[in-house]
Design goal:
The chain is built from four helices and six strands, in the order E-H-E-E-H-H-E-H-E-E. The chain is an alpha/beta fold.
């Protein structure tokens, strides 16, 4: 698995498309910007590459819906996708999530919970991923791998 993080609107998606030489025929691209959450039935497993973008918004949606065990359910999804990826050397799972934890600690409880949960999930994802990059202004810096 691969994880790409960095600032919002800093070129993460474009960098992923170029770096991994992705095209629509072999890639399932799932955006969580306007979704409740990701479900396995949303994923086209016939394609060799899965990109999940906007992870921070999937986490926020789960918090807003008062879902329990958010971190546990996302970890289980990550483990499932990692296993799927490892079954075939042509498969790749790429997660894209914006950094939301830098700066001033939010005053309202929901924003703090979102920031904290996102940080914990990103730590889990970084640990499971074979490579991690930080993208700022379209430039990638390797953090792992």
């Amino acid at each position: 698995m691969y994880f790409v993080t960095g600032g919002s609107f800093n070129g993460k998606s474009k960098w992923v498309k170029v770096h991994f030489n992705l095209n629509s025929t072999d890639t399932t691209w799932i955006s969580l910007f306007n979704r409740e959450r990701i479900h396995l039935e949303d994923i086209d497993f016939s394609k060799s590459v899965i990109v999940i973008e906007g992870l921070e918004y999937g986490i926020r949606s789960s918090i807003l819906n008062n879902e329990s065990e958010i971190r546990k359910s996302l970890t289980m999804l990550m483990q499932f996708l990692k296993q799927w990826e490892e079954e075939n050397p042509d498969r790749k799972v790429i997660w894209i999530g914006s950094e939301i934890g830098k700066g001033i600690v939010p005053m309202d409880k929901l924003s703090r919970e979102w920031r904290d949960m996102t940080g914990w999930v990103y730590q889990d994802l970084a640990e499971m991923s074979q490579k991690v990059w930080l993208v700022w202004y379209g430039l990638a810096t390797p953090l792992k791998g």
